[in-house]
Amino acid sequence: MEPVNVAIIYYSATGTVHALAQAAVEGAVKAGAHVRLRKVAETAPPEAISARPEWARHLQDTADVAEAGHDDLDWADAVLFGTPTRFGNPASQLRTFIDTTGGLWYQGRLADKVYSAFTASNTAHGGQESTLLALGNTFYHWGGIIVPPGYTDPVQFQSGNPYGTSHVAGDGPPGEVALRAARHQARRVVEAAGALKAGRAA
Ligand SMILES: Cc1cc2nc3c(=O)[nH]c(=O)nc-3n(C[C@H](O)[C@H](O)[C@H](O)COP(=O)(O)O)c2cc1C
């Protein structure tokens, strides 16, 4: 069977979600998928970015990550979206990308793919679940097949979010539990998308 194509599309201002996205890449590659890691375009004004050195530094550090385009969505059998929590919602940078997909949606080209999402917030209970559920609203509109991690691996009882991998950035960068959870989530997405792909090819 052809390998599963996975697009991992994320926004990260200061590197936390980027680290989770990289772990998701590892999990998907290990599960045998072809993977594209893509960041969405930065839309914040330069003065906002330069006011936070860690933001400017992360943008520079990830300058070589390709920007997400519609062809990445079209290509993918499964898409994992990563975003920081912004007042309990996905970051506007990711929403801006998603809000350009009307044409693809209208042609039915976003339907029947597997979707899943991960996030970070600064505080515990800071809106991680509402952010993931808000992204889920879009997946429903697209006719997507949502594959959450649930409690399908022992690491989920440590990381504790069945809706999607989540990290409290206020505690520092993602540690081994969050990274393992991201790898597990990606592996599960690849397995679900692979079963669907095989079933459709049969
Ligand atoms: C405008 C704005 C709104 C935010 N809203 C929340 C929030 O509702 N809850 C929370 O815990 N953290 C909030 N944060 C903190 C971010 O979620 C946190 O910095 C982010 O997850 C770090 O991810 P990154 O390093 O990938 O950018 C907010 C940050 C900004 C700039």
Question: If you compute it from the alpha carbons, what radius of gyration comes out, rounded to the nearest whole angstrom?
Answer: 16 Å
Described by the principal axes of the CA atoms, the overall outline is globular
Spatial separation of the terminal alpha carbons: 10 Å
The small-molecule ligands in this entry are: flavin mononucleotide
Q: Write the CATH homologous superfamily.
A: Flavodoxin domain
- Based on secondary structure, the structural category is alpha/beta
Q: How many distinct domains? A: 1
In the CATH scheme, the class would be Alpha Beta
| Corresponding CATH architecture | 3-Layer(aba) Sandwich
Beta-strand segment tally: 7
Quick one: biggest sheet? Answer: 7 strands, mixed
Strand content is 15-25%
Question: What order do the SSEs take from the amino end to the carboxyl end, as H and E?
Answer: EHEHHHEEHHEHEHEH
**If you average the pLDDT, what whole number results?**
98
> Given the structure, what is the number of helices?
9
The CATH topology is: Rossmann fold
Pfam family, one: FMN_red
Protein name: NAD(P)H:quinone oxidoreductase
Enzyme class: oxidoreductase
Keywords: Oxidoreductase
Lay out the secondary structure.
Layout: E1 5-10, H1 16-30, E2 34-39, H2 46-50, H3 53-61, H4 70-75, E3 78-86, E4 89-90, H5 92-98, H6 102-106, E5 114-121, H7 128-142, E6 145-146, H8 154-159, E7 166-168, H9 176-201
Parallel strand pairs: 1-2, 1-3, 3-5, 5-6, 5-7
Antiparallel strand pairs: 3-4
Helix pairs in contact: 1-9
The chain binds flavin mononucleotide.
Domain Flavodoxin-like: 6-190
Keywords: Oxidoreductase
Family: Belongs to the WrbA family.
